[in-house]
User: What shape does this take?
Amino acid sequence: MTRGHELRLAKRMARLGTETAFEVLVKAKALEAKGRDIIHLEIGEPDFDTPPNIIDAGCDALHKGFTHYGPSAGLMELREVIAQHVSETRRVNVTPDEVVVVPGGKPIIFFSVLAFAEAGDEIIYPNPGFPIYESMINYVGAKAVPIRLREELDFRLDVDELSGLINDRTKLIILNSPQNPTGGVLEKEDIDRIAHAIGDRNVMVLSDEIYSRLIFEGEDHSIMSVDGMKERTILLDGFSKTYAMTGWRMGYGVMRADLAAHIARLMTNSASCTASFTQIANARRIPETARRDGRRSEQDQRFLLPLAEGRVLRFPQHHADRLAIEETGRRAARRRWRRRAVRHRIRRFRRRLFTFQRGQLDRKHRESA
Assistant: This one.
């Protein structure tokens, strides 16, 4: 009779969190397979498919033999496109050797934490926030220091509070704007004050800007653009959210060249490289799609929804949606509008629920003290 063996995991595995949205997604997909109509609020991705020109570019790349290993830092063709894109959008000079292409955005989070933090170090991260931030910090044995995002500040952080959290043990500050899950957006004044709070201290900033193209009013501001901050900033971005390419698994990080070499070495030791055909599709079709979106932006149809604070949020009607309207008719269009209105109501409810839960926790802490 075979004797069972106890699974003896390393202690650090007990510190590893998860992203429960994927667990909910599995259950939601199972319901969809049974014919249920599901509104997906668990995973952060658009509700349309990848634009056809990008799909065609990916298929073409496969047929042309882009099915092999590539450089761990990414194909030079794509890194040049990314360097030009970031240079134009963040108004800084970026070269291809400062770009590392990875399979999704999470590797940049994981690699940054691995590269800078160890036991006794502190990393400041937004709370509420993307759960992988805290998970990775705890996993490497560092101390996770939350910075509260406050509803009265439209879910932006209090810079004075952040300044009080920075100390000699702080190795990394994580910023996320536009923010997941609250939708808060840091203003230029916030960014400038954060840079001032950091000052000349040797503290790195991981700026998660994966939602930077999904701002429909105003402008996204990056701390990488602030004088003196480029060499201390790791920019995390990608095209997965903007062009509904979440399943293609491609993101990138932009950072000083000497750090990029170390991050690329972490890629070599983990995933080897990002899929070549995915990179080619991004390199050859994303600039074309971005230009087309820019020309179309003034003609985008919009609908208005009132927010709890009495403001108005504008949602541009995406090109893919217009194609769907043309192909499936007015009934499909009305159904899409209704689904989006429901999403907004649920999002507003979740904000209120979070505020209530946070108040309950604060009261418990005061009572226990």
Notes: Strands lie at 99-102, 122-127, 143-150, 156-157, 170-176, 204-208, 233-238, 251-254, 302-306, 312-316.
